[in-house]
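#lab-general

N.A. 3:47 PM
ok so I finally got the sequence cleaned up, no stray characters, all 320 residues accounted for. can someone with queue access submit it? mine expired

B.Y. 3:52 PM
send it over

N.A. 3:53 PM
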Amino acid sequence: MSSLFQNAYYIAINFNAILYGVELVFYGMTMNALFTHRKKWTRTDKFYMWFSTALLLLITIYMSTEAVFGEEMWIVHRDTPGGSLEFLEENADVWYQTMGTTASVILNVLSDALLIYRMYVVWTSYRVIAFPCLLYVATIALGIIELYASGKPNADFFVGTAQQFGVAYYTSTISLNIIATGVICGRLMYLGRALEAARNTQGRGRGAVRYTGTLPMIVESALPYSMAGFAFLVAYGMESDISILFGAFYGMFTCISPQLIILRVVTGQAWTKDRTAESLSALEFENLGASRAAATTTVAPSEGTSTMDHKSIGSVQETV
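B.Y. 4:20 PM
back already:
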């Protein structure tokens, strides 16, 4: 590993700390919404509380192991023969680094599961999530293989067999992210236009239009999660020394993006299956109105033509 890798690692640790603070704020807001605005707890509330706590715990393990390894490399063992670069190469498979990688893989599993569920909420169709579910199972299998390959003695997450399995794993999970983002964005744009049309013509759908704006769409589709993942995958596949920096953004958004979705859910601002039904109803109503208008326009000329025909027949009869 070059000095560029160490510089990227140092910057990554700092961004981890900044984004970890952001995650703490969103987690606190989520817990505040759950404890303050709930007269009666539901199973969904309890699930999101424990899910959010699990996300926070996993991201804490991930960013802590990265920070500890940096401290060991640059401070504790800075005077070892070969310096920090030698320490990095010899201790890349240290146990707590493997623990951090394991935490990030589990974090991916949880986040991807939430994204698939949100796809179902927006589409209310099992057919839409069939392929993402298959890809999700493949991602879990590849994640286990990646953990084994990178945790073996003398293995390195960024070099060799571990890196090759890592590319396969991150290709599958980031592909799932991108598919989910695209599917959710496309659906929300479609339903948003339908609601806007219904609002303009019949005054329906006013309450749901605010759920399809630009910012809600970015949050609902976990767009930062997918974008950070794509940037990391490109750098990691090219074995670039700055891949660790993009990996930091990807790892933190693996937690922050789902937490933002949960925050919108518990505060009643997220898209729900009821709003999907409302949007589809508004769209059907709009299409029905358009069909009736088209039918009325078509019938009018027909009646005119029929009148002319009767007049023509009368003229012929009089002539005869």
